[in-house]
Amino acid sequence: MKQKTNSGIFNLNILEEKITSYNTILLDLDIDWLRKPNLSSNSILPFVTENTMVEILPLNMSKEEYFKTTFIGKLENHKKLLNGIQTTPTHIIRHYYINRKYNTPIGFRSSFNQLIADIILLNEEITNFYKFKLIGTKLNYLIPTLRTAHSLFEEKEFGNNDYCKIKKNIFLDTITKNYNLSSFKSIEPTIKEEQESSEKKIYTFTGLDLYNQIVNARNGLKEERKRFDEFEKFIGKEFFNSEPIDIVAQFNINEKHENNDKNEIINIHIKDKSNYLHDLGDGIQSLIVLMYTIFIAPENTMIFIDEPELNLHPGMQRLFLEQITNNQVLTKKKLTYVIATHSNHLLDLTIEKDNISVYSFSKKENGKFQIKNVNAGNNEIIRELGVNNSSVFLANSSIWVEGISDRNYIKAFLIAYCNSEKRSMPREDIDFAFLEYAGSNLVHYEFSYEDNDNIKAFALNNKIFILADNDSGKEEKHEKHKELCELNPENLKYKSTSPYREIENLISVEIWSKAMIELCNKNKIKKEEEKISVQESISKKISKINIEDYNDKYIGEYLKALKIPELNDVFETSGRTPKSLKSEYKAYLSKIILDKTINKEITWEDFSKNETVKSITEEIYEFILKK
């Protein structure tokens, strides 16, 4: 029969072990003990719930130092109790612990009960402390808000218009002083340092020494030159229509010997034209500072970025986020990013990313912070920052779609098309933006310049491309919008999925064969051999049914005809009649197809099997490009 206890410790050996462990800490805070495998975790902030209260470790304090400052006082308070308990004969402890007899000395009873309670509480605190992964790796990069791509100059003598370059990195000195980083190395590492260094370092990159970094990269080891080449390719692709470019730290050796450094500036050469970096837009310069650091960082580096949105247009912010999450050169390096931001645009974009965690920090009393984990679907923090569809006001054109799945399909079409045709991919939130009008709500918009109570569509954007499902029984609606387009053909275009019922009907057999397995009920496909079996069944049944027979029918009818049990729950029904995909599966399928397109598992060859997809994609692409 089990003995009931009030202490929460159900084994005397555990109690004795904990007393011994805590006494060991008091005598000597052994670093090896602090690093016990069972006390560590591989995840960052794994136990943060909606209202977690934590203290933020100073950037220049190690975890072991923080442990000492946090817990040593509490442990010292128990020292007398611990010594007293340990000098008490074991048979008295065992007798009291097992039998709960109160004929033991009163002083011993109270101290023993208090010790048990304190040990349990302290054990929970220490366990929670070790749930945190020590944020940071051997090499860490910090990109502070105090940054620029400009070289700084000062006048040699007041009023003489003769300037010299400020060689000292005053931004770095300021950051080091303000944030007490003097104990960390704060310059760019060499390849040799990356390979040989055993101490933890933070490399602070302000951009002021970008000129020197380019000189070193162009004249460095092969690995350094390779990273810089990848960076140049990125800049050329995103800002100069995929033209090959050279980023050069310009200097004249003769002037160098004469201490004349005013012409030491950064040039970007494209074809026969040369551009000074300081003549480019602030947005491009800001992105260059951010992306240079990321491209030259070695594998498994942790990169801390403070407010990446500075000087970045919302479209540039999207480009930044898409590059660090999708660029294959960067993803292969397995970098980890810790980003502090107030940008509603960046936060809005993270909702659709599975590999990004969002936390809000609110400073409370006693130096503590309240941390809230912002999950998809919980948009409270997003709303507090004023997130809305404001990007539609800033983009050059807008594409109006019925819902999120249409957005994903259009992006997939455009990506596959541009990859195949070697064309430049239009930039979302710069060249175009999506607006979701939710089907029947389109009737509330006025696409002419008449004065009535409807929402003025052209007040939102003066170039609008509308894509609609070809719902049967709504031919009059489609004709009305086509007539409106004829009144303003330059700025308004209307397109439906005709002759296909809805956008899912446009999916070719080739794409279904690659994506359908992801829709299947995961509870029924738990083993790899089961997945292989279902995939074989999908391939076999798809080949036997002509998908063109279902062009004007609900996609659920096609899926039901395949007779694949694992798909029975993905579409809606009316009575026994299958309808469209359920809303969550609509969005999920479109995301799968978009991801597979980005990864080039699905190509334009797969999409272009359908002539309507070709037509929609080409018309949207030309509409976006049209000035």
TrEMBL record:
<dbReference type="InterPro" id="IPR003959">
    <property type="entry name" value="ATPase_AAA_core"/>
</dbReference>
<dbReference type="GO" id="GO:0016887">
    <property type="term" value="F:ATP hydrolysis activity"/>
</dbReference>
<feature type="domain" description="ATPase AAA-type core">
    <location>
        <begin position="263"/>
        <end position="348"/>
    </location>
</feature>
<dbReference type="InterPro" id="IPR027417">
    <property type="entry name" value="P-loop_NTPase"/>
</dbReference>
<dbReference type="GO" id="GO:0005524">
    <property type="term" value="F:ATP binding"/>
</dbReference>
<dbReference type="InterPro" id="IPR051396">
    <property type="entry name" value="Bact_Antivir_Def_Nuclease"/>
</dbReference>
<dbReference type="Pfam" id="PF13304">
    <property type="entry name" value="AAA_21"/>
</dbReference>
<protein>
    <submittedName>
        <fullName>Putative ATP/GTP-binding protein</fullName>
    </submittedName>
</protein>
